[in-house]
Write a structure and sequence with these properties.
With 224 residues, this protein is of the alpha/beta class. The protein is built from ten helices and nine strands.
């Protein structure tokens, strides 16, 4: 049975969360985050990511239980939604993944699959699956290898590293390497030929794709 799209949008949920943060976080921390997001946006980094009409690279990545998941195998059955997230430590990723779980039944009813990819180690991926009760594959992209092929990866500035550390989000701990690299949040809907039919990439990690937009894109991808 399909699940209904929630009446409250993901943006509403994120806005509510940010209102709570604004009451607690020091103003200088919030202004620092805003400045770093602005720098990323002005760098034009998002314009280099995989675009509409591009061919997505095939990949095989382990899920939270160590089982390999291959994109071409998913696409043999129907369209696929591929979303890159920063990690379970990111509250915006948390809200996003929970929202997508809420429409997973509708995605499946359209004959599509959903996978979420982050650079964090399998142990942290498993924590995401268990804590958020996710029933779609959550994949570990060690060293951001696949995210790099989608052209999403950036290295955190010194200022952003300090801010991440302030919030306890020390990337080497979660990702198992010293690169301090992350993918920009990116969501792609691919048709069965691995052609990108929908792409949303934003250097502002507080902006995420609405579940309703994903469902609309999947419907379009089915016509290919």
């Amino acid at each position: 049975m399909s699940q209904d799209v929630p009446t409250a949008t993901l943006r509403d949920t994120i806005d509510t969360f940010m209102k709570g943060v604004a009451k607690q976080a020091p103003p200088e921390v919030l202004s620092g985050l805003a400045a770093e997001i602005k720098k990323l946006a002005e760098s034009g980094i998002a314009s280099h990511a995989l675009q509409l009409g591009a061919k997505a690279p095939d990949f095989t990545l382990p899920d939270a239980h160590g089982k390999p998941t291959t994109l071409s195998v998913l696409l043999a059955k129907g369209p696929a939604v591929v979303t890159f997230y920063r990690g379970g430590w990111c509250p915006f990723c948390d809200l996003q993944l929970r929202a997508y779980q809420g429409v997973l039944g509708a995605i499946h009813d359209l004959g599509a699959e959903l996978v979420a990819i982050s650079p964090q180690t399998p142990d942290y991926a498993l924590s995401d699956v268990e804590n958020k009760r996710l029933t779609f594959p959550v994949l570990t992209d060690k060293g951001n290898a696949v995210a790099r092929e989608f052209k999403l990866v950036f290295a955190l500035s010194d200022a952003l590293r300090k801010l991440q550390t302030h919030f306890g989000s020390i990337l080497p701990k979660f990702n198992g390497d010293e690169s301090w690299e992350l993918p920009m949040p990116g969501t792609f809907v691919l048709d069965r030929q691995a052609t990108v039919r929908f792409a949303s990439v934003d250097p502002n990690w507080m902006v995420r794709v609405e579940p309703a937009a994903i469902l609309e894109a999947v419907r379009g991808a089915r016509t290919s």
